[in-house]
Design goal:
By secondary structure, the protein is α/β, with parallel strands linked by helices. It has seven helices and ten strands. Helices cover 26% and strands 20% of the residues. The protein binds 6-phosphogluconic acid (6PG). The site of 6-phosphogluconic acid (6PG) has 15 residues, from loops.
Length: 246
C-alpha cells in the first residue's frame, strides 16, 4: 500500500517533512547511533530546510547525531548559485549546530564530475551498510522533476542502469551537462525514502508515476522502490489534483 499524504500547500507539506526529519533523528539518537540523511536540491525542499533552521525544529533536532549527505549535485563549485550544497548551506547549515565533519557534500572542487563521483562513491563507504553491502541511509529526501526524474536520474540517462557504484557522474543530454547522483541501489536500500512533490506543474507527471505502467527509463521516479524500507509521498493538493483512481 502506497503511503501518500496530501497537504493543503507547500508550507504544510514542508512542516510535515520537518517532523519526519526530526523524528528520524530522534529515533536514531534513542538507539544510540548516528542518523544518516541524504538531501536533494531543487526548489521544493528549500522550505523544509528553512523550517529545520527555525524553532521548534532547530531546537529539537539532535543535530549532534546527524550525518548529512547529498542525493545529487550539479557540476559546479559550492559557491555557485546552481549548487545544491550552497542552497542547503544558506537555508539550513548556516543556522544549525551541525559540525563540518558531519556535512558531506559532493566534492565538486575536484578536477571533473567523474573524479567527484568516484571520490563520493568512496566516501559513501563510511555510511553503515546493509547485509548486501549497500549504504543504509536512515532517510533520503527526494524531489521529482516534471519529466519524472528524481535525484539526477533523468529519463533515458546511463545512471538508470547502474548496479555497482554508489554514486556516478550522469550525462544528462537535455541539460548538456554531467550531473552527480546517488544510484538506485543506494536510494532503494534506505530505511525511509520520502518524496516531496508540490505544485500543479507536477500533477500530470505525478499521476503518470503513480498510475502508468512501470517504466523507470521514461519515469525514473518509478524506479524508487525501497528493498525493505518504506516509501512516503508528501504531496500538496495541487500536485495531487489529477490522480486517476487506482
Ligand atoms: C536537483 C534536484 C532534483 C530535483 C528535481 C525537482 O538537483 O535539481 O535534486 O532532482 O529534486 O529537479 O526540482 P524542484 O523541486 O525544483 O521541482
Amino acid at each position: 500500500m502506497r503511503d501518500v499524504q496530501v497537504f493543503a500547500n507547500l508550507e504544510e507539506l514542508s512542516r510535515a517533512a520537518a517532523d519526519v526529519f526530526q523524528n528520524t533523528v530522534a529515533r536514531c539518537a534513542d538507539e544510540g547511533r548516528r542518523a544518516y540523511v541524504a538531501v536533494s536540491g531543487g526548489s521544493t525542499p528549500k522550505r523544509l530546510y528553512e523550517l529545520l533552521a527555525t524553532p521548534p525544529w532547530r531546537d529539537h533536532v539532535h543535530w549532534s547525531c546527524v550525518e548529512l549527505y547529498w542525493v545529487d549535485e550539479r557540476p559546479v563549485l559550492p559557491t555557485d548559485p546552481q549548487s545544491n550544497y550552497r542552497m542547503v548551506e544558506e537555508a539550513l547549515l548556516n543556522d544549525v549546530p551541525l559540525p563540518p565533519t558531519s556535512v558531506h557534500p559532493f566534492p565538486t572542487e575536484l578536477a571533473s564530475p567523474t573524479a567527484a563521483a568516484e571520490a563520493y562513491d568512496l566516501e559513501l563507504k563510511e555510511v553503515p551498510r546493509t547485509e548486501d553491502g549497500w549504504p543504509r541511509f536512515d532517510l533520503i529526501l527526494l524531489g521529482m522533476g516534471d519529466d519524472g526524474h528524481t535525484a539526477s536520474l533523468f529519463p533515458q540517462s546511463p545512471a538508470l542502469s547502474e548496479t555497482e557504484r554508489r554514486a556516478v557522474a550522469n550525462p544528462v543530454a537535455k541539460l548538456d551537462v554531467e550531473r552527480l547522483t546517488l544510484t538506485y541501489p543506494v536510494i532503494n536500500h534506505a530505511a525511509h525514502v520520502v518524496f516531496l512533490v508540490s505544485g500543479a506543474g507536477k500533477a500530470e507527471v505525478l499521476n503518470e508515476v503513480m498510475h502508468a505502467p512501470y517504466d523507470p527509463t521514461a519515469l525514473p521516479a518509478q524506479g524508487v522502490r525501497p528493498v525493505d524500507g518504506t516509501l512516503t509521498w508528501l504531496v500538496d493538493e495541487a500536485a495531487y489534483s489529477l490522480q486517476d483512481d487506482d
